[in-house]
Write a structure and sequence with these properties.
4 domains, Elongation Factor Tu (Ef-tu), domain 3, OB fold (Dihydrolipoamide Acetyltransferase, E2P), 31% helix, 6-stranded antiparallel beta barrel, elongated, conserved putative lor/sdh protein from methanococcus maripaludis s2 fold
Length: 404
């Protein structure tokens, strides 16, 4: 092989043992720095979102409220419930099997209306037996009275004979003794008749207890027992409430009871009809305080009574400085969402609604500013619980826990 060819082949040979020594150490350093920066950036970006997905986010809770047009005259606002002031829990005085039910849940009843009939077989049998006993006792009394009449006649005859000397006095004395015995027997027989008659009257009262009547006008607010059930004095058969005596009972904190005045005007808003404002008036301040709640009970009556008012309805009560003008009642209350609960996501104003331990992102349409919030034109209803100051990592469907 010629020298030029050998030189060319030697120039193409790869020097494997000299590769690492020929690389610059700065290139490796730059690569490591870039890798570290990339990992740090990825962690800073993805870690909060990943943590939010894997763990519950701790949040502060607020809610959507209703602001009344009469807010400027409100001394105090509290939540209460509609409570009937007259309730009858119908029970049975006797043990028996239900034969007929004359009321259903939700029915209106009148005083004296038959609600239940129990099987009267046993008391009727007892009454029939008592009638037989009364007849037997009366027969014995009549027989004793007849015997007494007969012996009295014989005693009187022997008494006349003894006075004339035609008969011994001892015979007349014997008849006199028999008259006294028979008098006692007649008295006993008559007393037995009266006792049996009294027992019959008691059985008749017991029979009347097998028919259960309504003690007041009202509405059945519970499901009654059914035909065939065996009932007794231990459990109520149905509950009757007087819907004409419905009041709102409100627990007012003790420290604010001084703001409540007797006959003070009130504004009432039912949770079932949040857009309707009703007039009310304080009718009673409870004589005692609840030590456990540190509150007092205030009762408020409806001046404007709604048609479908039911017990246990929730009512927001505002105690006012002056009565409401009836002409202003048509003006609806405004829904207000705290400004701290509103954030922007993808260019849209949203709030995060709390729903069974998770958040649900709901778009909202805001109106004018009201205090520290905005009027809510479109969005969740009043009393909806929402997240206050939601973090940037909070997303739809994430699990949350409420911060104490």
């Amino acid at each position: 092989m010629s020298d030029p060819l050998s030189a060319d082949l030697a120039s193409l040979r790869i020097q494997r043992d000299e590769g690492p020594r020929s690389r610059s150490p700065w290139r490796l350093l730059i690569f490591l720095v870039a890798l570290t920066a990339g990992v740090s950036l990825a962690y800073a970006t993805l870690a909060p979102r990943l943590e939010a997905r894997l763990f519950k986010t701790e949040v502060t809770v607020t809610e959507v409220t209703l602001v009344s047009p009469s807010q400027g005259t409100v001394d105090l606002t509290a939540t209460g419930y509609v409570i009937p002031q007259r309730i009858a829990r119908i029970g049975s005085k006797v043990v028996g099997r239900v034969l007929r039910v004359g009321v259903r849940e939700g029915d209106s009843v009148k005083t004296g209306q038959v609600l239940f009939e129990l099987d009267p077989s046993d008391p009727r049998s007892a009454i029939a037996a008592n009638h037989a006993k009364v007849a037997s006792a009366r027969a014995r009394a009549e027989a004793a009275q007849a015997t007494l009449a007969e012996i009295r006649i014989q005693w009187e005859r022997h008494e006349r004979l003894a006075r004339s000397g035609a008969a011994p006095q001892a015979t007349a004395d014997d008849f006199a003794a028999r008259v006294r015995v028979l008098n006692a027997q007649v008295t006993s027989a008559v007393a037995e008749v009266r006792a049996q008659q009294a027992e019959g009257a008691a059985l008749a009262v017991s029979l009347a207890n097998f028919t259960i009547l309504a003690p007041l006008d009202g509405t059945a607010t519970s499901k009654p027992v059914e035909v065939g059930d065996v009932v007794g004095p231990s459990a109520p058969l149905v509950e009757i409430a007087d819907f004409d005596a419905l009041l709102v009972e409100v627990d007012v904190p003790e420290a604010r009871l001084g703001l409540v005045r007797p006959k003070a005007p009130c504004e009432l808003v039912l949770d079932s009809a949040p857009d309707r404002r009703l007039r009310g008036e304080v009718v009673d301040l409870g004589p005692r305080l609840n030590r456990a709640k540190a509150s007092g009970l205030v009762k408020v009556r409806f001046i404007d009574r709604p048609e479908r008012l039911r017990p246990e309805m929730s009512v927001r009560v505002s105690f006012l400085q002056q009565p409401l003008d009836p002409s202003s009642l048509a003006e609806a209350a405004k829904r207000v969402v705290p400004s701290a609960a509103v954030v922007t996501r993808s260019g849209t104003s949203v709030v995060f609604v709390i729903d069974q331990g998770r958040v649900r992102m709901v778009p909202v349409a805001l109106g004018a500013e009201v205090g520290s919030g905005y009027e809510l034109r479109e969005g969740p209803p009043a009393a909806t619980r929402v997240v206050r100051d939601p973090p940037a990592t909070l997303a739809d469907g994430l699990a949350i826990k409420e911060r104490p």
